[in-house]
Amino acid sequence: MTTQLFSPFTIKNVTLKNRIVMSPMCMYSVDTEDGFVKPFHITHYESRAVGQAGLIMVESTSVTPEGRISPNDLGIWDEKHVEGLQKINQAVHVHGAKTAIQLGHAGRKAALKEEIFSPSAIAFNDKYQTPTEMTEEKIKETIHAFQQGARRAKEAGFDIIELHGAHGYLINQFLSPLTNKRTDHYGGSTENRYRFLSETIEAVKEVWDGALFVRISANEYDDNGNKMDDIIYFASEMKRQGVDLIDCSSGGVIPIGINTYPGYQVTYAEKVRQQANIATGAVGLITSGLQAEEILQNERADLIFIARAFLRNPYWPKQAADELGVDIESPVQYTRGWRS
Ligand SMILES: Cc1cc2nc3c(=O)[nH]c(=O)nc-3n(C[C@H](O)[C@H](O)[C@H](O)COP(=O)(O)O)c2cc1C
Question: Which residues bind substrate (predicted)?
Answer without folding.
Answer: 28, 164-167
